[in-house]
Amino acid sequence: MPSDSIALIHQPSTDNHVHPFPKPNLGAFETPLRIQMAMRYLENSDVSKRYTKSAAPRAKLEDALTVHSPYLVHAVEIMSRIGSGELGEYAYASPDLLRSALHALGGAKQAAKAVVEEEAEHAFALVRPPGHHATSASPMGLCYFNNIAVAVRFLMKNHGIKRVSILDFDSHFGNGTSEIFYSYPNVQYVSVHEYDYENFGIGHYEEIGHGKGAGTNINIPLLESSPDTSYESVVERVIVPVMESFRPELIAVSAGYDAHYTDPVGNMNVDSRTYWLLGSTVVKLVRSLGLQGSFWVLEGGYNPLALGLSIRASLDGLLGKPVPGLEDQTEREEHEMLIDSNNQVIGQVLETHSKYL
Ligand SMILES: [Zn+2]
Fold first, then answer.
1. Residues spanned by the domain of 49
2. Which protein residues have their CB within 5 A of the ion that is ligand 1?
3. Contact by Cβ (8 Å): 25, 90
């Protein structure tokens, strides 16, 4: 199997889903510019020699139905035809929504397929709109179809894959993916995200999965402004041991880059070194556990200047290259109290899951 190159699947440049203006929404940041600028950055960097790129094929509505209710799928179709309107909280329609959403879904499926068909050991779908907030029944948070959930379901249904771990490092909790697989014993969902301990909300570590799926939902809710050091601890103390214990056949990654310290939507404090570490950790797990590989699907990441270099750092990690020196890597203040609080959270996560590991 070729391990020295990555399959990069990108959104067709003609897709133009944009959120309407003026609405009080976060959609101002979720635009085609994200993909365009990330692609431009990657194409001008050394890593471009190490991937083969192809445009995302268009998925079918039936693909979305493997995870979503007919009502949701029908609503996305109808509202795209109407060309405007609100489908859910922070999820708006445009005339290009359906086309863009089906390409995002097709890209995620294609990335999953590239790995199981041994075209590449690792694949990355650079697509939008993102998916991890979309539940089985509701679009929300800039997400319509849950791209990664559909791709995982596709592998299990059509390619005989039995066990998958999903790593979600987007700054926000992937409530949709968590909900979809909450009682699945064979899909492990591991999410590291920011959490508001003053107001609480979903994404708490006590949400562990249900029934036969108990123990397969692992939330690591870090405090706002968490630095690279806390992510290193999460990787070492939680992500690696829980995946070693679960023993998946491959790893699916919900790759959201909005924990970057320059992101206008997320509130975390990491730079591209953390994104390199995550890539490098995934490849080490793939090697040490003898897995088929990993496929990555873009979620958030709303500073178009930071997105390309963050992805490039992940790809360098996947390719076994040393951490690249990139212009976003600055020395920023790290607060000891914050790191201590996060270490306590990590301890709670491990204690909560101790009987399943
Ligand atoms: Zn996010």
1. 6-356
2. 170-172, 256, 258, 300
3. yes
